[in-house]
Amino acid sequence: MAFRxxxxxxxxxxxxxxxxxxIPADGIGHExxxxxxxxxxxxxxxxxxxxxxxxxxxxxYFTRTxxxxxxxxxxxxxxxxxxxMFGAVSSPSRKVxxxxxxxxxxxxxxxxxxxxxxxxxxASSPNEKPDVDLVVVRENTECLxxxxxxxxxxxxxxxxxxxxxxxxxxxxxxxxxxxxxALNRPRKGGFKHLTIIHKSNVLSVTDxxxxxxxxxxxxxxxxxxxxxxxxxxxxxxxxxVYRLFREPHIYDVMVAPNLYGDIISDAAAALxxxxxxxxxxxxxxxxxxxxxxxxxxxxxxxxxxxxxLAAIRSAALMLRHLGYTDGADRIERAADEVIREGKxxxxxxxxxSKTTEVVDEVVRRI
Length: 366
Hints:
Largest sheet: 10 strands, mixed
Structural class: alpha/beta
Helix content: 25-40%
CATH topology of the largest domain: Isopropylmalate Dehydrogenase
Mean pLDDT: 92
CATH class of the largest domain: Alpha Beta
CATH superfamily of the largest domain: Isopropylmalate Dehydrogenase
Order of helices and strands: EHEHHEHEEEEHEHEHEHEEHHH
Distance between the termini: 15 Å
Number of domains: 2
């Protein structure tokens, strides 16, 4: 997977033990996270001794306790863990009094301001260039996801309003990360390209601030021509989705506000066959949490047919962020080999294998 993490170092190399928080949360999170754990354990001495800390959160936990994200989980992540893996969370389409998404809350509490989602197809040969090879860099703390909503009775009946927050600070941070990723991605031919996704022709104030702030990153004090080799383009979000399906090869790194980044990365997953293949990391300056892009999939939960590869690949991204490049490479190569061979795949990819069978095959190849 052509992705390198040039973020501020949070390496734990000096530690003798790597403590990883494990939050399966809801639905198939309980089935795919063990696959990520097994892949990490299969690395042996490539990484420090690992300890896995089981933690609670999610809608299922909320229905039992009235709390979606217990303070004990937050404290454990902040004080006892070097990194974490998150499974999947159920998000009710109706309003549920007292419930708020724990993954959204964790991103804010741990200041995981970037959600980085590589979307890469697997070529028929390891030496061939993949048809799709892009990274969506999604701002993770603002936009409509601040969840500041109100409803009143007006002259036209019910009126629902949501406040959208875009700040210069958050836009600058995500812009800096996106430029670093574009600069450091190992691409053949030296192609380094960053596309800013916005809708400032309509939302000229909020998206306008995001667009202007990201564009200004190369002019920040101390940058001194660092990003001269990165070509910058812009795309309105609606046309970006259209071109994503028609011409995915034109994209390298895409940077977007929270809502657009969420939609674009899910849409891009269709280009590589399944949401069950697409990983991500929630990253900040001092912590990283791997998270498969897919949801909790209640329709297949408990059937042992969920695709574990997105969770496994997310574990690799998490390790890469921490500086364990060799271990990350081994996991990614093993996952790619399983996909390329096509004999051990879950139903979302047209196969008949069970979740546990795919995990066993990846572990064997690691």
